[in-house]
Specification:
This protein is of the alpha/beta class. It has a single domain, classed as Rossmann fold, CATH 3.40.50.450. About 35% of the residues lie in helices and about 20% in strands. Helix 1 runs parallel beside helix 2, helix 1 packs across helix 5 and helix 3 packs across helix 4.
C-alpha cells in the first residue's frame, strides 16, 4: 500500500504558508506518497497543487456532502457531509501528519492525531502544544523550520 500523509493547515493561509504547503505536497509526491488534505483552499489547495505538479496523487476529504468548492488540483475527492468531524477521517487515514500554519480546524487535527498516538505529527509553523508550565508537551508534535525537514521527519520510520 502507498504511504499516505495528511497535510493540514488553514483555509486562509499566508503567502509563506501557501509556499511551504506547495513545497511539502511536491516533496511528498516525488517520494511516491499520497497527499491527504481537507480539499478546499489555503494550505489544502497548495499541498494538492504541489502534489499534482510533481505527478502525484492528492485526496481531498471534504466537509460537505457534495464536491462544491473542492480544489481543482485534487486527484480524488471524498464528500463526507461530516462538517469538521471529517478531520478525524483525514488523520485516521494518514501514516503521518504535517501541519503548515494554524487555525482552529488545524488544531483539532493536531489533537486528533496526537490522541491516536501512533503516527508522527510534524508542525511547520502554527500552533505550539505546551504544558501549563510552558514546556513542550510530552509525546507532542515535532517542530521543524523547513518543508524538507517536515517531509523527512514525517517519513522517518515509514520506509525501509
Amino acid at each position: 500500500m502507498a504511504i499516505q500523509i495528511a497535510v493540514c493547515g488553514p483555509a486562509e493561509a499566508s503567502e509563506a504558508e501557501h509556499e511551504q504547503a506547495r513545497e511539502v505536497g511536491g516533496l511528498l509526491a516525488r517520494r511516491g506518497v499520497v497527499v491527504i488534505c481537507g480539499g478546499y483552499g489555503g494550505v489544502m489547495a497548495a499541498a494538492a497543487a504541489g502534489a499534482r505538479d510533481a505527478g502525484g496523487t492528492a485526496v481531498g476529504v471534504l466537509s460537505r456532502a457534495d464536491r462544491e468548492g473542492a480544489n481543482p488540483d485534487l486527484t480524488i475527492t471524498i464528500a463526507t457531509g461530516m462538517g469538521q468531524a471529517r478531520n478525524a477521517v483525514i488523520v485516521d487515514s494518514a501514516d503521518a501528519v504535517i501541519v503548515v500554519g494554524g487555525s482552529w480546524g488545524t488544531l483539532s487535527e493536531v489533537a486528533l492525531a496526537l490522541r491516536r498516538g501512533t503516527i508522527p505529527v510534524v508542525c511547520l509553523g502554527g500552533w505550539r502544544v505546551e504544558t501549563a508550565d510552558g514546556h513542550p508537551a510530552p509525546d507532542g508534535p515535532l517542530y521543524v523550520s523547513t518543508a524538507h525537514e517536515a517531509v523527512d521527519a514525517a517519513m522517518a520510520g515509514l520506509t525501509d
